[in-house]
Design goal:
The structure holds 2 protein chains of 2 kinds. Chain A is built from 19 helices and no strands. Chain A is an all-alpha fold. The chains are: A mainly alpha, B alpha/beta.
Chain lengths: 358, 488
């Protein structure tokens, strides 16, 4: 490299250093400025909270005193107030809730929430869905439906709750149309629906079950079982009749069966090729059956699956109306060594448990 | 006298170098080093710019103060896994801090990985543990489980006592016992900010394709913690932890944020990361034979998803914070850095098929080569650069003015990227109060260039050497004071 060439490079390096130094100093000043700005913002948030908390409480508890205009709000302040409003809304009921809804009208909340609903910010969207649900804004119903169909679990569930708050009759079919969603846990869904009128629930779920696939029917049976166990029995009957080969559906149906009326249908499954179904059948017989189911359970003691034999033996010793003498007779009839062994094991376990209790 | 001796030594070295015919090598080597520096700087600059842009949009879209508490009931439940090995000093307060997290539904599973100290006894005494009859399916391989304990005081706390198998093995055991679809790995010597889980869950709420998310790890030395709760964040008084704070800010805020926006994040810190359990089981869980199990898992997840043409995304979220103790002495720090370097090399070498694979996208074509060239092999080139400068100066081939100019530009660039990290910190989640803290961190950003950076390169080179020799990987003993966990 020639000397002139090197000098140029060195000079270039020095210029670069100067630029770097300048940029560093500028960024340092920017950091300090941002720090100052953040402190100011924290202060204004604090001020907004201090100013608006008493106003919100006063709207709830002393509505007559609130005749004057509300304080002016900046865009940032509006966000804080909506947050406070939502927090308070979660803790009140009845007339207090109505007064907070009036305050929302005064704050012109609904148009802003509708804007937020179509914006890009996740938090603003979620806040808007919740707020529109809380104020039961009927005009937002159609806008909320796409959010129930959203792939994101939280959006769909929050929107489902809002739809139910606005119009349960129209909202419930929309929600039940999403029953196939694995990300919606059945227990959470039941939590959303638990306060709805019983008739509406039973009618809607039964209608939905008529067109349901095996997977959907399984989830509907679980849902109905949580909400109203006795009303899930027609759905179980439907499952047994229409989907006799669907293992998961049948095991759910057997686990949820609470009516002895289903016994004839259940007993038909004693030779079901799936051992999981036979296990649930043995358990269901212990719950719903009587001494007439003894021979069926005795047969199951010779099942090829250990779990079926074990559950059948447990069910046999727990069968209502079966005394020790009857059990002894049955035991003597057994010739299969596996059946004898499992019944002995379960009887020993039962004795140990009883001794443990005493 | 001493000066004469020094001058004589320099003259002798000068003569010896002159006799060697090195001229043909010098120019290519010089350009190699300059090219390396230019590429490295350009890479960091691009990452910085990307990080600044991403941070801006992250702040606009994620105003956590607007999160209404009432939809918390819809959040996916999380299993928090805490592998612990000889952690008797800090385990009780760490677990206590985890039990106080703000999150609607979660369980804490501590895995005592065959500790030789009183870790299990401390846990039994502090949380009223009783032996449980619970069992768990062995979906991931792990060493023998000696017992599963349940706290009678905290229903969501379980403890696994197992034979020693390393951190990866302990995490696999935790995954086996976990009940929930997401799990969060947390180091036993760390504490989480109370709302960390609420913040780190965000990508899983917004994106059905999210499979993992990592959060920021900050240094706890100097902070005030009581009963597992962070009372006040403050800068430590000792120099070494202060230097590491700037390093952590840089590594987490622009490094990870930049790569995350390209869906090419190669590491989620083992101290704090959230994963989709099913997918971790699908890829075979944590790998036992590496000391960088956190990074290796993430790289393997990338490989699995990319090569199978599956849609996915791995996120880095700058605001959820996990606090951990940084080494305060050089020996422990050296040990940590050597281990990190080996972990990096092991993770990359185990997944080498990802490099320039036609399906590997930004991971295989950008992040992987960047990590390989500038992070894995970088220390060798950096040390070579220092030796080259020393050598050419001794030989009289380097103009002192040019040497100073190159040093100033290198250091200036180092300071600039540290200051960008300070900007990012201020934009995202500033924890240190007052402008004085910013000025102190700036001072550290300057000081680290004089000795600390060079030491780091040396330790990393040592890690590279040990990896190349394939010597046995061990965690060694980390010296921790644990003082910050009990300050009043």
């Amino acid at each position: 490299m020639s000397d002139t060439h090197s000098d140029v490079i060195v000079q270039l390096v020095w210029y670069s250093s100067a630029v770097l130094l300048l940029m560093t100093l500028l960024l340092l000043v920017l950091t300090l400025f941002m720090h100052y700005e953040r402190r100011q913002r924290d202060k204004s948030r604090q001020q907004a909270t201090e100013q608006w908390t008493p106003i919100l409480f006063s709207w709830i508890y002393s509505p007559d005193e609130n005749t004057g205009p509300l304080p002016q709000l900046t865009a940032e302040g509006f966000g804080f107030v909506v947050q406070l409003w939502l927090q308070l809304e979660q803790t009140v009921r009845g007339s207090a809730s109505s007064r907070l809804a009036e305050l929302a009208q005064q704050l012109n909340l609904i148009p802003v929430m509708k804007q937020w609903l179509h914006g890009y910010s996740t938090d603003k969207k979620l806040t808007a869905i919740m707020a529109l649900g809380i104020v039961q804004e009927k005009s937002a119903f159609a806008d909320l439906i796409p959010h129930v169909l959203d792939k994101r679990t939280i959006f769909s569930l929050v929107a489902a709750r809002a739809l139910l708050a606005i119009d349960p009759k129209l909202g419930l079919p929309v929600i039940l149309s999403q029953i196939h969603r694995d990300d919606w846990s059945v227990s959470r869904l039941a939590g959303l629906l638990v306060r709805l009128p019983h008739d509406l629930l039973v009618r809607s779920i039964t209608e939905c079950a008529e067109k349901a696939t095996a997977k959907e029917l399984r989830r509907l049976i679980k849902l109905m079982h949580i909400l109203s166990p006795i009303d899930s029995q027609p759905l179980i009957q439907q499952a047994l009749v229409h989907y006799p080969d669907e293992m998961e559906l049948l095991t759910t149906a057997f686990a949820c069966a609470v009516s002895p009326d289903l016994l004839p249908l259940l007993r038909q499954q004693v030779d079901n090729p799936q051992w999981e179904v036979r296990v649930q059948l043995a358990k269901a017989l212990a719950r719903l059956g009587d001494s007439s189911d003894g021979p069926l359970l005795l047969k199951m003691l010779s099942d090829s699956s250990w779990w079926v034999r074990y559950r059948a033996a447990q069910s046999l010793v727990a069968l209502p109306g079966v005394e020790g003498e009857q059990l002894q007779q049955w035991q003597q009839q057994l010739t299969d060594p596996f059946a004898i062994a499992i019944l002995l094991q379960v009887k020993e376990e039962q004795q140990r448990q009883q001794q443990g209790r005493t | 006298m001493a000066n004469d001796w020094l001058q004589q030594s320099i003259d002798l070295t000068h003569q010896w170098i002159q006799q060697l015919d090195l001229a043909p090598w010098l120019v290519p080597l010089q350009w190699l080093l300059v090219g390396y520096f230019v590429c490295l700087s350009a890479g960091y600059l691009i990452l910085n710019l990307v990080a600044l842009l991403v941070m801006r949009s992250h702040i606009q879209s994620a105003r956590t103060e607007l999160l209404p508490a009432s939809y918390a009931s819809f959040l996916t439940p999380i299993s928090v896994l805490v592998p612990a090995y000889n952690e008797q000093e800090t385990i009780a307060s760490s677990v206590l801090s985890l039990l106080q997290l703000t999150y609607p539904e979660y369980e804490v599973i501590v895995i005592n990985d065959g500790s030789k100290d009183e870790t299990l006894q401390v846990l039994k005494d502090s949380f009223a543990l009783t032996l449980s009859s619970a069992t768990c399916p062995l979906r991931l391989p792990c060493q023998q489980i000696r017992g599963i304990y349940q706290s009678s005081r905290y229903p969501n706390l379980k403890v696994i006592d197992k034979a020693n198998g390393g951190k990866a093995d302990a995490l696999n055991a935790g995954v086996n016992l976990s009940r929930f679809p997401l799990f969060c790995g947390v180091d036993a010597d760390s504490i989480l900010q109370r709302d960390s889980l609420l913040r780190i869950i965000r990508p899983f709420l917004e994106d059905p394709n999210a499979i993992a998310a990592g959060g920021t790890v900050r240094i706890a030395n100097g902070c005030q913690v009581k009963d597992g709760l962070l009372l006040k964040a403050a800068l430590p008084n000792k120099l070494l932890p202060q230097l590491q704070i700037v390093e952590y800010l840089r590594g987490f805020l622009f490094g990870r944020l930049g790569w995350s926006s390209l869906n090419a994040l190669l590491i989620i810190s083992g101290a704090f990361g959230l994963f989709k359990k099913d997918l971790v089981i699908e890829v075979g869980g944590y790998r036992h034979k590496t000391i960088g199990e956190d990074m290796e898992l993430v790289v393997r997840m990338h490989k699995h998803m990319r090569l199978n043409n599956r849609k996915y995304r791995i996120y880095f979220i700058p605001d959820p914070v996990c606090w951990t103790e940084a080494p305060e002495d050089l020996a422990t720090l050296a040990q940590q850095r050597v281990r990190w370097q080996r972990g990096l090399l092991e993770s990359l070498s185990a997944n080498m098929s990802l490099l320039f694979h036609r399906k590997s996208g930004a991971v295989g074509w950008l992040a992987f080569p960047f990590a390989l060239l500038f992070e894995a092999l970088g220390p060798a080139l950096e040390v070579l650069g220092y030796l080259f400068m020393l050598f050419t100066w001794l030989a009289g081939w380097l103009d002192p003015a040019a040497l100073v100019a190159f040093l100033v530009v290198t250091i200036g660039f180092g300071i600039l990227i540290s200051v960008v990290a300070l900007v990012l910190e201020e934009m995202s989640y500033p924890v240190y109060p007052g402008g004085r803290s910013i000025m102190r961190l700036f001072l550290m950003a300057v000081l680290e260039n004089f000795g600390y950076r060079q030491l780091n390169s040396w330790w990393r080179l040592k890690g590279l050497w040990l990896w190349a020799r394939n010597s046995k990987s061990t965690w060694g003993t980390m010296k921790r004071s644990g003082k910050w966990q009990n300050t009043k």
